[in-house]
Specification:
three-stranded mixed beta sheet; 2 domains; YefM-like fold
Length: 82
C-alpha cells in the first residue's frame, strides 16, 4: 500500500487520486495512520460486500430463530420493541 504524508497528499492531490485508482493509499500525519483513500470502484465493492455480509447474518439469525420456534410475529415484536 502506498503511503503519503498529509502535507504530501495536500501538495500532490492529483498524484494521490491517480495512486488511489490503482490501490488504496494510506495517509499519515506525524507518522500515524489517519486515513485511507480508495477509488470509487473499490469503495462501492466494499459497500456491496458489507451489505451482502449483513444479509447473510440476518438470514442466519432468522434461520436460528425459526429452528428455536420463534414465530415471524414474535420476531417482529422483539425487533420493534424499544
Amino acid at each position: 500500500m502506498k503511503t503519503f504524508s498529509a502535507s504530501e497528499a495536500k501538495q500532490r492531490f492529483g498524484a494521490l487520486i491517480e495512486a488511489a485508482n490503482r490501490e488504496p493509499v494510506k495517509i499519515q500525519r506525524h507518522q500515524r495512520d489517519v486515513a485511507v483513500v480508495l477509488s470509487m470502484d473499490e469503495y462501492e465493492r466494499l459497500i456491496r460486500f458489507n451489505v451482502n455480509e449483513f444479509q447473510r447474518f440476518c438470514d442466519q439469525i432468522g434461520t436460528s430463530a425459526r429452528r428455536a420456534g420463534v414465530s415471524e410475529e414474535e420476531l417482529n415484536k422483539l425487533l420493534n420493541d424499544s
